[in-house]
Amino acid sequence: MSTSDLTFDFDRQKRLGLPEAVLCAGKSVAQIDAAIAGAAARSLPLLLTRLDGESYRRLDPDGRRLDYDAASQTAFFGKPPTPTAPPQIAIVAAGTSDTPAAREALRTLTFHSQGATLIMDVGVAGLWRLQARLDEIRTHRVVIVVAGMDGALVSVLGGLIAAPLIAVPTSTGYGAARGGETALAAALASCAPGVLACNIDNGYGAACAAIRILGSGAT
User: Fold this and answer.
1) Full-prediction pTM beyond 0.70?
2) Quick one: 140 and 98 in the same domain?
3) What stretch of H or E contains 137?
């Protein structure tokens, strides 16, 4: 695959209100660099997802070109505007093992100048942790729930809040968790009405869904 294989969608912002991001997994450093060059030529910022540390170091050896976050494997080319409004989106993660997907959602929202509140380690194994943050969670217009293993946090929180809830099942867990398939099935089969489910570990997709919901005027 060469750099000529890339056809970047620079008009996506006009159509969807969301610019195209670069999924770096499976792309060569040269291809990623070509996408950055295309954005630079148009004076546009660019979000890079699933950018591993080795590729980042090759793209930005002096650390001045990209804003890189190792936990989420995301990078910004160009600085997005700082959010001025109070956070409207909460990202609620069951455990610290769910950090990569939770931070991918957070960084995606940051890139799109959306404020967000990140609430970590409130899984159902200690319900008092969730109860202590419930009033805070309810102040947000959209809630993203990130959970692996049995994914139980999705249904529990889905029965406690009125805001749109977007589930991100993660690949966290032992054998029967099946790389996130169990959590995904739990989200799809949730008895909490109206739960939306993204694919496994897809924090980026969940953040984009939240932005679309806010853009639709949902309260």
Assistant:
1) yes
2) yes
3) helix 127-137
